[in-house]
């Protein structure tokens, strides 16, 4: 989700 | 992906492997809190609900599967594997799950970035992860005698959190619009909970002595 950068983290 | 994030993920992975090594090869879970491990299962199950709906990278999906699988298997071993279960400090590991989960559920319903099911669950997992280590720290405090693998497990988990903070600082300065207060504050709280443990870990390492917590 590019709108929410924290979602590309684990 | 920056070097801090990678280092954080790798220390997280290493911590899980150390714990599995202890449980699988030594067949012992002495000093390991089942409550904390069950909370981690809930943390990963609620955070990775998006595993089939949002794809970031092969790396991310693979790591999600590893963290889900390893946390489930650790709990399975501690509950159902006869030899491992015998070594579990049941009388000492008395922390109540709901005592930690209920405030996290309420907080996630009140404070989140978006009020959608996935987002509230994701936020709940962040809050719960911040405090999930508490039953483990209480158990350590009670048993006091810590074997090397358990000490390394907690040290690596704390290291993972530390690297993630560096990752956030790096991303804040290198990526536009990268501001995530909820993630940062819960991550910071989580890391601070390890501070006391780290202090005694370094003390024992410096003096080349076995790790022992004060009563």
Summarize the structure in words.
The complex is a heterodimer of chains A (10) and B (215). Chain A is low in regular secondary structure and 10 residues long. Chain A contains no helices and no strands. At the A-B interface, loops of A face helix 1, helix 3 and helix 8 of B.
Profile the largest sheet of chain B. Answer: none
- Give the N-terminus to C-terminus distance of chain B in angstroms: 42 Å
Number of strands of chain A: 0
Low-confidence stretches of chain A: none
Q: How much is the average pLDDT of chain A?
A: 71
**Average residue pLDDT of chain B:** 95
Q: Per the principal axes of the C-alpha atoms, what is the gross shape of chain A?
A: elongated
Structural class of chain B: mainly alpha
Shape summary of chain B: globular
Low-pLDDT segments, ≥5 res of chain B: none
SSE arrangement of chain B, N to C: HHHHHHHHHH
Subcellular location (chain B): Endoplasmic reticulum membrane
Protein name (chain B): ER lumen protein-retaining receptor
Pfam families (chain B): ER_lumen_recept (PF00810)
Membrane topology (chain B): Multi-pass membrane protein
């Amino acid at each position: 989700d590019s709108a929410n950068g924290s979602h590309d983290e684990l | 992906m920056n070097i801090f994030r990678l280092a954080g993920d790798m220390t997280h992975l290493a911590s899980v492997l150390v714990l599995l090594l202890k449980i699988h090869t030594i067949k012992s879970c002495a000093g390991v809190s089942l409550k904390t491990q069950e909370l981690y299962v809930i943390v990963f199950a609620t955070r990775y609900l998006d595993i089939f709906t949002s794809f970031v990278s092969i790396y991310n999906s693979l790591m999600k599967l590893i963290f889900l699988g390893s946390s489930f298997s650790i709990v399975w071993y501690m509950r159902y594997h006869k030899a491992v279960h015998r070594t579990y400090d049941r009388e000492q590991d008395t922390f109540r799950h709901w005592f930690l989960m209920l405030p996290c559920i309420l907080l996630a319903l009140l404070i989140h970035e978006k009020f959608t099911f996935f987002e509230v669950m994701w936020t709940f997992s962040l809050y719960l992860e911040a405090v999930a280590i508490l039953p483990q720290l209480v158990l350590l405090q009670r048993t006091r005698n810590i074997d090397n693998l358990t000490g390394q497990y907690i040290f690596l988990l704390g290291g993972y959190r530390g690297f993630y903070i560096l990752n956030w600082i790096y991303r804040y300065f290198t990526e536009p619009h990268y501001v995530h207060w909820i993630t940062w504050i819960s991550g910071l709280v989580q890391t601070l909970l390890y501070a006391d443990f780290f202090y005694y870990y370094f003390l024992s390492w410096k003096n080349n002595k076995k790790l022992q917590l004060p009563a």
